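Reading a protein record of the kind used here takes little practice once its layout is understood. An example of such a record is reproduced below.
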Amino acid sequence: MSTSKPEAGFTPTGTIANPVDRRRVVFATVVGTTVEWYDFFIYATAAALVFTQLFFAPLGANSLIVSFATVGVSFLFRPLGAFLAGHFGDKYGRKVVLMWTLILMGAATALIGVLPTYEAIGVWAPILLVLLRILQGLSAGGEWGGAVLMAVEHAPKTRRGAFGASPQIGVPLGLLLASGVMAVMAMIAPGDAFLEWGWRIPFLFSVVLILVGWYVRRRVEESPVFTELAERKEQTRMPIVQLFRKHALLVVIAALVFAGNNAVGYMTTGGYIQNYSTDPEGPLALERGPVLWAVAGSAVMWLLSTLAAGFLSDRLGRRTTYIIGWILQLAGVFLLFPLVNTGDIGLLFLGLAILTIGLGFTYGPQAALYSELFPASIRFSGVSISYAIGAILGGAFAPMIATWLVKETGTTMSVTWYLAGMTLIGLIATLLLRDRTGIPLGPDHEAEQSVSPIRGLSRA
């Protein structure tokens, strides 16, 4: 046993004792993840609204599918970002990784804002666009795990769900900010002006957000769990090797939990609904601005349900909260397109708002759920890689798949069944896991944490 004293400001159980410091952690987590996801989603929105014309126009009828494919390409590089972030996060700390992911995402986003179009530099335009999207993917792969652990490992045992919801609301906040800024630019620079220069401003605005995020994050203390590991010199030399040697099946099941949420969420965060409802040659042909505001409004509903689910999971347990969420999400999936296809902007918003309630309940508890699944010494690697794999299986190509399904079948019902299938996969994966709400997270309890949370197995 270590005889070292706890770091000043920390309790012996490894949580921050000072409420001011706790609020600082939560605020920094929310700000940082919001900035990251704003950058990530602004690309998806632009892919749906302008990239088909500016970067992929020579592909003709296939330009939209290819544009959505570039949204998904970044997901293929998320695991690499997760591997790198997990390795360095388990060896050198959560905080340093979060600082670098913020810089990488911001630089890639700002560079897209000044990228010449296909008309200016030919095939180099889409090539450079894809390369910058890959950098966004690398950053996103490392961001989530670090943000989650900074929040959950600082939290009191009975409030991990509430604290863990703070990085989760960065997703709806990022979507709200991205949709809102795009909607404002659609008003300031309507029509051809939006295609010429209006779409670039939201990308360049990322520079300001990154500076804010950097300032806030650098003032936060390192995770107390990692601090204790470092003091004991118990960091794992090759955390990823240990993860897959002992917990490979757990990684797959945890990934499927997220895949069920992510595929459905990417109907808006991936830009599919925005394109489907505004396509001038499509069945609805709605105006761009009102649709973007409707998506922004649904992001508020997503934020509230995500927060509610985080708090509720501290009372009902992660597993029960998830099961409620899957039922709500399935109902939202079947209501989405009947409401969207009315062509009424109010009903479109209603369809998205109902959907986001289920999405919030299957996303809010995820930070706490994932953190309680893996042992302390490999936790960063475990949560990051599970999340990255789940993103590939779920949201990576969901907009492209939805576009292809409608093109092949001529009906959005095919998309509904696809999303319902992904929701059921998430439910089944959740049912395979034991509830570990409240399990100790510190390195003193590594043996207890290593007992497999998969139902029917005694050890990983």
Summary: The first helix runs from residue 19 to 49.
